[in-house]
Specification:
By secondary structure, the protein is an all-alpha fold. 82% of the residues lie in helices and 0% in strands. The protein has 18 helices and no strands. Helix 1 runs parallel beside helix 7 and helix 17 runs antiparallel to helix 18. The chain starts with a helix and ends with a helix.
C-alpha cells in the first residue's frame, strides 16, 4: 500500500510539472507564433513567399522526425531532445530581425526542425502521466491552450506598445523557463518514449485501413488551421482590425480550448472517438464558412468561440484515438506519425495553398477553400465512423 501511495504522489507531482510546462510553452507560442507571418511581411517578405517558406520548413521537419525518433530510442535522451526542441527556436527568434531573405529562411527552417519533435514527445509524456495519475490527457493539454490564450492576448498588448521586431524577448524568456521545467522531470519519465522502432511501428499502423483514412482526413481538416495560425492576423488587419483587437480574438480562441479539452473525456466516453472527430470537423467547416460570408472584424473576433469546438476537441480526440490504436508499445511512435501528418503534411499543404489563395484572391477565397476542405475531411471521418460501427 505504501508503494502505491508513493507512486500516486510521484504521478501527481509529474502532472503538476507537465501542466507548468504546457502553460509556459503555450504562453511563449501564443505570444510569438500568431504574429510570425506579420513579422516576416514587416521584414519585407511577400505573403505567398511566407507560405512557401513555411511549407518547405515543415517538409524538412517531417524528414527529420524519424531521425529524432531514432536518437530518442537509441540513446534514451528524451529530456535533452525536448529541451532542445523548446530552447533552440527561442534563441533563433532574435535573428528574424536581420532583413535578409536567406537568413530568415534559414532561421525558420532550423527552428521548425527542432520544434517539430516538441509536440509528440510532450504528448507521449502527458498521455502516460495522465493514465498513471488516473486523469485525462485533456486536463494536462488544456493548460497549453490557456497559456496560448493568455499569450496571444499579451502579444497584442505588447505590440501596441513595442515594435514587432522586439517580440523575440518575451518568447525567449518564457521558452527558457519551459526548458528548465523539463529538466525537473523525473528520470522515470524517460520511459515514456517508444519501445518499438519507428520503421516497425509504421508497418504495423499502416496496415490499419481506418488509421490510414484517419490520417488523410486529418490532412484535409488540419490544413485549414493554417488560415488561423499563419494568416489570421494578416486577414484580420486587411479587414480593418487593430493589433489590440486581434489580441482579443487570439485570447478568445485559445480560451475556448480549455473547457473543450476538459470536457473532451466525457464527450469521448459518451459518443466515442470517431463521432467526436466528426463533430469537431463540422465545427471547423462552420467556422470558416462564417468568416467567408462575414469579413467583419467584430464577427471575426466572435467566431473564435468555435476554436475550442473545432481544434481543441479534434486534437484531444485525435491524440486519444492514436493512443488507443497504437497501444502501449508504440505510444510515441503513433504520436510521431500523427504529428508528422497532422502538423507536418497538413501544415505544408495549408501554408502553400492558403498562402497562394490569400495572395491571389484574398482572405475570402482562402476561407471558402477551407470550408470545402473541412467538409471533405468530415466526409472521410463519417466513413470511419461507419466502419467502427460495423466492426464487432
Amino acid at each position: 500500500m505504501e508503494n502505491v501511495a508513493v507512486v500516486a504522489t510521484e504521478a501527481k507531482v509529474e502532472l503538476v510539472k507537465l501542466r507548468v510546462l504546457y502553460l509556459l510553452t503555450g504562453l511563449a507560442g501564443g505570444m510569438f507564433n500568431p504574429y510570425l507571418t506579420t513579422l516576416l511581411v514587416h521584414q519585407g517578405m511577400a505573403a505567398n513567399y511566407v507560405g512557401v517558406m513555411m511549407s518547405i520548413g515543415t517538409l524538412l521537419s517531417i524528414l527529420v522526425q524519424p531521425i529524432w525518433g531514432l536518437l530518442v530510442d537509441r540513446f534514451r535522451q528524451t529530456k535533452l531532445v525536448l529541451v532542445l526542441s523548446i530552447s533552440v527556436p527561442a534563441i533563433m527568434s532574435y535573428f528574424y530581425n536581420i532583413e535578409l531573405f536567406v537568413v530568415m529562411v534559414m532561421v525558420y527552417t532550423l527552428s521548425i526542425i527542432f520544434q517539430s519533435t516538441q509536440s509528440p514527445i510532450a504528448d507521449s509524456y502527458a498521455v502516460s502521466a495522465a493514465r498513471k495519475g488516473q486523469t485525462s490527457y485533456g486536463t494536462v493539454r488544456s493548460l497549453g491552450s490557456l497559456g496560448t490564450a493568455l499569450g496571444g492576448y499579451a502579444g497584442g498588448l505588447y505590440l501596441s506598445r513595442f515594435e514587432i521586431t522586439q517580440l523575440w524577448m518575451p518568447f525567449l524568456a518564457l521558452s527558457l523557463a519551459g526548458a528548465f521545467t523539463v529538466l525537473t522531470l523525473s528520470k522515470r519519465s524517460e520511459g515514456y518514449s517508444a519501445v518499438v522502432p519507428l520503421a516497425q511501428g509504421l508497418k504495423v499502423l499502416f496496415r490499419n485501413r481506418s488509421f490510414l483514412l484517419f490520417l488523410i482526413a486529418c490532412i484535409f481538416v488540419n490544413q485549414t488551421l493554417t488560415a488561423y495560425n499563419s494568416f489570421f492576423v494578416l486577414s484580420f488587419k486587411s479587414a480593418g482590425g487593430s493589433y489590440s483587437l486581434v489580441g482579443t480574438a487570439l485570447l478568445l480562441a485559445s480560451l475556448t480550448n480549455v473547457p473543450s479539452m476538459l470536457l473532451a473525456a466525457k464527450i469521448l466516453r459518451r459518443i466515442g472517438h470517431e463521432q467526436t472527430l466528426l463533430l469537431a470537423a463540422f465545427f471547423y467547416a462552420l467556422r470558416w464558412a462564417i468568416q467567408w460570408m462575414f469579413p467583419i472584424p467584430s464577427v471575426m473576433v466572435g467566431i473564435q468561440v468555435l476554436h475550442g469546438l473545432s481544434f481543441g476537441l479534434f486534437y484531444v480526440a485525435a491524440v486519444e484515438y492514436v493512443a488507443n490504436v497504437s497501444g502501449r508499445e508504440m505510444q510515441a511512435t503513433g504520436q510521431s506519425i500523427f504529428n508528422m501528418v497532422f502538423v507536418g503534411v497538413g501544415g505544408i499543404v495549408g501554408n502553400l495553398l492558403n498562402g497562394y489563395l490569400f495572395y491571389t484572391g484574398g482572405a475570402q477565397v482562402m476561407y471558402l477553400a477551407c470550408t470545402i476542405s473541412a467538409l471533405i475531411g468530415a466526409g472521410m471521418l463519417y466513413w470511419i465512423n461507419r466502419i467502427a460501427k460495423m466492426s464487432p
